[in-house]
Design a protein that fits this description.
By secondary structure, the protein is of the alpha/beta class. Among the domains are: 192-336 and 465-565, no CATH class; 350-454. The protein contains 20 helices and 11 strands. It has helices spanning 2-59, 70-75, 102-105, 164-168, 191-203, 208-217, 224-251, 304-309, 337-346, 350-353, 382-399, 405-415, 417-428, 437-447, 449-452, 466-482, 488-506, 511-525, 529-534, 540-546; strands at 93-94, 160-162, 174-176, 255-263, 265-267, 277-284, 293-298, 315-319, 331-335, 365-366, 485-487. The strands form 4 sheets. Strands 7-6-4-8-9 form a 5-stranded mixed beta sheet, sandwiched between helices. Strands 1-10 form a two-stranded antiparallel ribbon. A two-stranded antiparallel sheet has the order 2-3. Strand 6 (277-284) and strand 7 form a beta hairpin.
């Protein structure tokens, strides 16, 4: 019996070992399934985030200040409406700006007085029939009157004079008067016409085909091809020297802002019509000097383009996290905090975004919460905490944005250093899901750890690159109307004209008058550096002519005078 018992025991052991092996295999399988489920849940979450983002881009409003997506309304239109939810709005203070008086608003406009006299039959005294004497005029009201644009044909006639004595002696001495240099040879284009075309195209975002309709209403059959030719040729011949002068002045500055925005050129050598090109934006910082805003068309987004444009520049560059800017040598990058905040904002669930307020240093909206710097609310999601951290810094920037550069630098070190230390310590505690938007926000912050804080090195630096983004938006507004550039010359001309317009705007000049003045004088001064210097937007010569409303009927090519060189 002992042999049978041993065999039984051995058999039972084998069964136990087999069961244990199966249990271990099942445990491993269960663990693998749990890992797979977790990975699938992460994938589903990331795909839902991506789907929500696509819905927002396709159907919603492209603004980080808006949380409710129009896509949800469109996709859920057939679902029964839910009961309205009560939302508590965060307390805020809005500071109202003092209203300008009518006298201040219309100070630059000329005044025409309309004197309403008493009729002759009513100038006798109703009591004694004595002729009444003039006592004076009383102000009754003010109206604004507009004189529609009027196009006229101007024929230049050159006088010729002859010497009568020489003619009697058989010689003929004839002298002809000089006429103003034409803007374009054998063309009816004038400084006022071309300036109007440029202003409407790049200042008011009116494409050439719309201008064609408008010109026809004024009695001028001006085809879009003609106005486009005027625009391109005058920009490349007369405004390019001014652009180059501004470019060299910008390179000598200490702080600049850089950004880029895509555009499309139909006829570009070596590229398809549907391919992307780029309009790069460069502008001066808050250094106390006259503002300069330049656009530069390039066929791509390579880092070689800003390297070439900024050749010789040594200073600080405000930019976003695009890696191409890191290729520029001998500069200090100042990464935009608004971009970092946007990453965290996009990681906030849609239904919670409307509770967030995004501060800007130029906004008149004040939110009291960030003032005390107390610990963050534990009910906030990690992405919301990231937004709040950035808001605290923006709030402080608004508090002393009007201070001197030295004061701003010292106050930043005193008040913002601790917030940054708290922010980075909080970042180290996060363990976001792989591939999620929160992970992208955390990685963005960590990858630009140093450059995000470089604005504290100089009080003239800004905490964000919003100045460049606003100029990018200006171009995008025009692009929504004209859609594309036909040729590379058209894209380059658009960059030049928009640079002149935005620079004039930043220096508080009348845009049309500045364009008109440049086209009025540049035909004779395009090769004169001293003359071009006097045509800079900050010169006294330009400020006298372009700060108010100029009478273009008297300031004409034939009586414009000379530039004081």
């Amino acid at each position: 019996m002992s042999g049978e018992t041993e065999e039984l025991i051995t058999f039972l052991k084998q069964i136990n070992e087999l069961q244990e092996s199966r249990i271990k295999e099942q445990a491993v399988t269960i663990d693998n399934l749990r890992i797979m489920i977790a990975d699938l849940q992460v994938t589903v979450a990331n795909l839902n985030e991506t789907l929500d983002e696509f819905r927002r881009k396709f159907f919603g409003i492209s603004s980080e200040k808006i949380s409710a997506s129009a896509a949800k309304e469109m996709l859920d239109a057939k679902e029964p409406a839910e009961e309205p939810k009560i939302t508590t709005v965060t307390e805020h203070i809005r500071t109202s700006k003092p209203k300008s008086s009518r006298k201040d608003l219309y100070a630059s406009l000329p005044i025409r007085y309309v004197r309403c006299d008493v009729p002759e039959e009513q100038r006798l005294c109703p009591d004694c029939d004595t002729p009444m004497e003039h006592l004076g005029y009383k102000f009754v009201r003010e109206e604004l009157n507009i004189i529609p644009a009027k196009v006229e044909r101007v024929h230049y006639l050159s006088e010729t004079v002859v010497c009568p004595v020489c003619r009697e002696e058989g010689d003929t001495t004839i002298v002809a008067a000089k006429t103003p240099t034409p803007l374009m040879a054998h063309s009816p284009a004038s400084p006022s016409m071309v300036a109007n075309v440029m202003y409407q195209k790049s200042g008011n975002h009116m494409p050439f085909y719309r201008q064609q309709v408008d010109w026809k209403q004024k009695g001028v059959p001006l085809p879009r091809e003609t106005s486009a030719n005027w625009y391109n040729q005058c920009a490349l011949e007369y405004l390019l020297p001014v652009y180059d002068y501004l470019h060299q002045e910008l390179i000598r500055r200490d702080i600049i802002h850089v950004d880029e925005v895509p555009c499309q050129v139909l006829h570009e050598e070596g590229k398809e019509a549907t391919s992307k090109s780029y309009m790069w934006i460069y502008l001066s910082g808050t250094d106390g000097k006259p503002a300069i805003v330049l656009y530069d068309y390039q066929p791509g987004r390579s880092g070689d383009y800003p390297i070439e444009f900024l050749s010789g520049y040594i200073g600080m560059i405000h930019c976003d996290g695009y890696s191409a800017y890191g290729m520029i040598q001998d500069v200090i990058l100042v990464c935009c905090l608004a971009h970092c905040r946007r990453k965290f904002y996009e990681a906030v669930p849609k239904e919670r975004r409307k509770k967030l307020k995004l501060l800007d240093i130029n906004s008149d909206l004040e939110i009291p919460e960030p003032k005390d710097g107390t610990a963050l609310d534990s009910t906030l999601l990690p992405a919301e905490k990231g937004v709040v951290f950035c808001n605290r810094l923006f709030f402080l920037e608004r508090m002393y944005k009007k201070r001197s550069a030295e004061d701003r630098k010292s106050m930043r070190r005193e008040q913002e250093t601790s917030i940054w230390e708290e922010f980075w310590s909080w970042i180290d505690t996060l363990n976001p899901t792989g591939g999620s938007k929160l992970e992208k926000a955390v990685n963005y912050a960590n990858n630009h750890h140093e450059t995000l804080m470089n604005y504290m090195l100089d009080g003239r630096c800004e905490i964000s690159n919003n100045a460049a983004e606003r100029r990018a938006k200006t171009y995008v507004m025009g692009r929504k109307n004209f859609l594309f550039h036909d040729t590379t010359d058209g894209a380059k001309a658009s960059a030049i004209v928009l640079s002149i317009i935005e620079t004039a705007k930043a220096n508080h000049l009348n845009i049309f008058q500045y364009l008109y003045t440049l086209l009025l004088y540049m035909p004779d001064y395009k090769n004169e550096p001293a003359g071009i210097n006097q045509l800079m937007p900050w010169s006294e010569f330009i400020r006298e002519r372009c700060s108010g409303v100029m009478d273009t009927e008297t300031e004409t090519p034939e009586n414009r005078g000379s530039i004081p060189i």
